[in-house]
Amino acid sequence: MSAQIDQVLAQAANDPDVMETQEWLDALEAVIEKEGPERAHYLMERMVDLARRRGAHIPFSSNTAYVNTIPADQGEHCPGNLEIEERLRSWMRWNAMAMVVKANRVDGDLGGHLSSFASLANMLGIGFNHFWHAPTEDHGGDLLYIQGHSSPGVYARAFLEGRLSEEQLLHFRREVDGKGLSSYPHPKLMPEFWQFPTVSMGLGPLMAIYQARFLKYLHARGIAKTDNRKVWAFCGDGEMDEPESMGAIGMAGREKLNNLVIVVNCNLQRLDGPVRGNSKIIQELESDFRGAGWNVVKVIWGSGWDELLAKDKDGILQKVMMETVDGEYQNYKAKDGAYVRKHFFGKHPKLLEMVSKMSDDDIWRLTRGGHDPHKIYAAFKVAQDSKDQPTVILAKSIKGYGFGKAGEARNTAHNTKKLDDEAIKAMRDRFQLPISDAELPNIPFFKPSDDTPEMQYLHERRKALGGYLPQRRPQADEKLTVPELSAFQAMLEPTAEGREISTTAAYSRVLTALLRDQSLGQRVVPIMVDESRTFGMEGLFRQIGIFSQVGQLYEPVDKDQVMYYREDKAGQILQEGINEAGGMSSWIAAATSYSTNNRIMIPFYTYYSMFGLQRIGDLAWAAGDMRARGFLIGGTAGRTTLNGEGLQHEDGHSHVFASAIPNCVPYDPTFAHEVAVIIHDGLRRMVANQEDVFYYITVMNENYAHPGIKAGQVDGILKGLYLLNEAGKENKLRVQLLGSGTILREVIAAADLLRDDWKVDADVWSAPSFTLLAREGQDVERWNMLHPADTAKKGHFEQSLEKSEGPIVVSTDYMRTYAEQVRAFVPKGRSYKVLGTDGYGRSDTRAKLREFFEVNRYFVTVAALKSLADEGKIDASVVKQAIAKYGIDPDKPNPVTQ
């Protein structure tokens, strides 16, 4: 008895009414044939809905069969010349291989990746030839997040297009001398080529989602026409394990981002081995994305399988396809046709009969959907035409496609970068490259003359789509006028007697003034992550509204309040909820809008500083790579300022993190006038001058009086140090006290204690940025080293303090490392003592926390006296008296260890 009869009997045994079942199935078949699958789907959904409403328990499944989503007879065929496109792809595969292998024959440690592009080449080819628009007057251009490890293939295409030279290809991963190509997509290193960085993995899909939403934002606010543009993001199936890859798919579905397409290259492998050896990554991802409201298109099987699937009337082939796990599929493509016949089709006699007239070579040529131009084109067309959903295309491919035994579908494929002569010859033969045996040892690049049909076709396809991609706009064409510093006059003046404000409030007032500016107001993008009320910024809700594509479909509960929660289709605020990674991704989209949209936007992302660079440091680094321009505002900053929140809320290290990003300009201001000067400088540099920098500014929620700006202080504020209060000359002893943020006020108080209690005059310096002081000092130090015969230069820190007297003492609300950056530039012969908040935070009053971390006025005073004693200017007993006078326990535990 055949297996088919066994299956039918088994089904019948569990069916109390076989005839009724068959009638329902026949009816469904008739609907599909006469009215189409859409009608059948509608009827089935109605029946399931009715059953559930009547109390039936029907388990939900977001999965479909393990076959292509688009039926063979319904997908649109690729209109291009596929023979020419295949030859072009073969040449690109060869040149990509030659580039990487040549590089590693020069230096075996350069590395490089071949297998990702090998599996992705057909998908990229279809996109470049038929879908992706370059920027023109009529089209803003599509945005491409290219799978990072496939960069060699993109370079190979640009080489054929004449956009890259052979010399550049020969310098792949050797870019120090300015001739080479970056390892992965890096706008910082190739500012006119790559649009976005997509390594480290996971950031590409996350940033793409928020980029697509930002295009909707620009269009809704009338700033740029973006309704005909698409964001395409390519990523690997292994990459989808990164939390960032999947973390925002719910937002994309909720916001109906029909301008977004994510293509997951499902070659079933990551670096070490299979992605899901014991299950199916495509089915898993389908469930995740479909459940999040996405249009899911699976491209699993190539056209060669269509005939077999058409013959599969009893569903045995589909059943075996579903039951076979990814580890087996990987193994099949690492072997040969005979192995596939035995181990795949051999799982059922009916399947062996189905392929009995096929040779082993015929079976081997049954390709996966990710390598079939027609299947890919059909999927891309569905994604292009999506009206109300984002689309994910799950395309099954073969890692290392074309490498044969050298690495195709093997666990080592990801790291394949060196091929022996035999493997290179096999690749040439497989892709029919016109390269002789004599030439093979040199692995020559192949580029035919421009008058060949293939090259003409290559250029014609890109001309039809507006030009070449990827390409990046380094500067915006538009010019915006930055207001004078006097526009923030209220923040430059002293606070009224008896009035106190925080630097957070000062920042809010500067932002409000900027929103009212005729030139820049509409370009400001306030970005919040559910902390607006914490920073006293909820007034912006009603003033400029919160962006929502559907407006406000409800009456807010606080409608009777002046500052009620208002959503609007043209709202200006991007409110991301409790979502720092999303807030940063929105900020990146706005901060790079000058490049992607030819529109200068000015994003202000305001967040708890503890949940900023520490939490999204990888995105901040990527922002630097993308040459982002904008303001990151770390609110409630400092280890002792947010006093009641405790260990995981108190930031004493964000400025240390910020110092690691070369194009991040960080400041820790104390006073309102400093905040205004710094923001104005950022506008000047980033908007007026279009410099590729971004600003990190920490602000605090502690209220106090502000002295206002004095003549000549602007330059010092921006350089990172200026003399705030110069002491009199009443006493013989003198010290220099430096501070930033709220701790500067403790430094000011310490100056009074030194004068009144110990007859020591203390000059007080405000140091808004030790990082900028250190960078300039290092730059000067380097110049002096390389110009030994010239007069040595001095940096701002050294110049400012060299004529002052006495030891230098610093106290900040950050780790000592922050202020230690400038130790090398302390004037010769001067002592330099740094106090800081090393260790974990904790809850208590601000006064107790500053005592605990030893950064308050009393410890500053003791540190100054100890420095004087070390220089022999006072007796050590004076220091001991101060310790006793201020009630300091000399044996208290080190806060770092507590």
Automatic annotation (TrEMBL):
GO molecular function: pyruvate dehydrogenase (acetyl-transferring) activity
Protein's UniProt name: Pyruvate dehydrogenase E1 component
EC nos: 1.2.4.1
Domain called PH: residue spans: 1-33
Organism: Herbaspirillum lusitanum
Gene expressing this chain: aceE
Catalytic activity: N(6)-[(R)-lipoyl]-L-lysyl-[protein] + pyruvate + H(+) = N(6)-[(R)-S(8)-acetyldihydrolipoyl]-L-lysyl-[protein] + CO2
Keyword Transport assigned: no
Function noted in UniProt: Component of the pyruvate dehydrogenase (PDH) complex, that catalyzes the overall conversion of pyruvate to acetyl-CoA and CO(2).
Keyword check for Isomerase: no
Record keywords, A-Z: Oxidoreductase, Pyruvate, Thiamine pyrophosphate
InterPro entries assigned: PDC_E1_N, PDH/Transketolase, PDH_E1, PDH_E1_M, PH_domain, THDP-binding, Transketo_C/PFOR_II, Transketolase-like_C_2
SUPFAM superfamilies: Thiamin diphosphate-binding fold (THDP-binding) (SSF52518), TK C-terminal domain-like (SSF52922)
PANTHER family linked: PYRUVATE DEHYDROGENASE E1 COMPONENT (PTHR43825:SF3)
Highest taxon listed in the record's lineage: Bacteria
Needed co-factor(s): thiamine diphosphate
